[in-house]
Amino acid sequence: MMVETYNWSSQLGAGPIEYSQSVRTAQFGDGYEQVSDNGINSTAIQVPMKHTGTETEVDRIRNFLLAHTVKAFIITPPGEVKGLYRVVADSVRKNQISSKFAELTFTIKRAYGAYA
């Protein structure tokens, strides 16, 4: 199984990169609390992104993204490390700027596992 690579230069979109940590806690009657990571990949990363370009290029990227909501791909998002990511469902938006140019906004989420 071949993992595809996102090869376009895109920027961070509106909003911050989000880090969501999953932890387990156990609270005891005397106020003592135990906290631990919930697995080896307990931090989820979501990155809002955007790409502005010709309508033809934006349409190619849109098709790539729509095909990768359940299938992971390789990307190095701005401000993050290279890794496997998937597109967050229903996050892909296209805004027509002019007759020849468009802007695409989307959100990707870090994927963990073999080929995720």
Helix-strand layout with pairing:
Layout: E1 11-12, E2 18-21, E3 23-27, E4 33-37, E5 43-54, H1 55-66, E6 73-75, E7 83-87, E8 93-96, E9 101-110
Molecular structure report:
- The structure is a single chain.
- The chain has one domain (11-110).
- β8 (93-96) and β9 (101-110) form a beta hairpin.
- The chain is mainly beta.
- The protein is elongated.
- The chain has one helix and nine strands.
- The protein starts with 10 loop residues before the first strand and ends in a 6-residue tail after the last strand.
- The mean pLDDT is 91.
What is this structure, in a nutshell?
With 116 residues, this protein is mostly beta strands. It has one helix spanning 55-66, and strands spanning 11-12, 18-21, 23-27, 33-37, 43-54, 73-75, 83-87, 93-96, 101-110. Helices cover 10% and strands 43% of the residues.
